[in-house]
Amino acid sequence: MSQASGSITNKFVQKIASKEFRNYLMSTHFWGPVANWGIPLAAIADTKKDASLISGNMTAALCLYSGLFMRFALAVKPANYLLFACHATNEVAQLTQGYRWIKYNK
Questions:
Q1: Helix (H, G, I), strand (E, B) or coil at 55
Q2: How big is the chain by its Cα radius of gyration, in Å?
């Protein structure tokens, strides 16, 4: 292992072992977004299902919900990029479902 990669590894281990990182792992700033990832994962999985099963109203509500929470994730201090990523992923998945719903119903 080169000295440069050893230094990077040491810095990474120190960061993970720090009290601040442990506090972050035990906070709602971390676990809230982790719990929220079920929504976009379910939406992504649903893209394989028949379009007749899509609820237009629920898809619209989830698009609005994710749009609002993307803004919230950046407005809180410190900004919660994990929450932002979760809702950005959900926004794309819901827009995909919305497109499928429109194509099926129109």
A1: coil
A2: 19
pLDDT in tens, 13-29: 887 778 887 777 777 77
φ, ψ (nearest 5 deg) of residue 49: -85, 165
| Measured distance CA(13)–CA(34) in Å, rounded | 22
Of residues 27 and 81, the one with the higher pLDDT is 81
Show the CA angle centred on residue 81, arms to residues 89 and 90, nearest 5°: 15
Contact predicate 43/101, CB 8 Å: no
Q: Provide the b/e sequence for 55-83 (b: ≥16 CB within 10 Å).
A: eeeebeebbeebeebbeebeeeeeebebb
Q: pTM score, two decimals? A: 0.76
Q: How far apart are CA 28 and CA 35, in angstroms?
A: 10
- CB 56 within 8 Å of CB 101: yes
Q: How far apart are CA 10 and CA 104, in angstroms?
A: 54
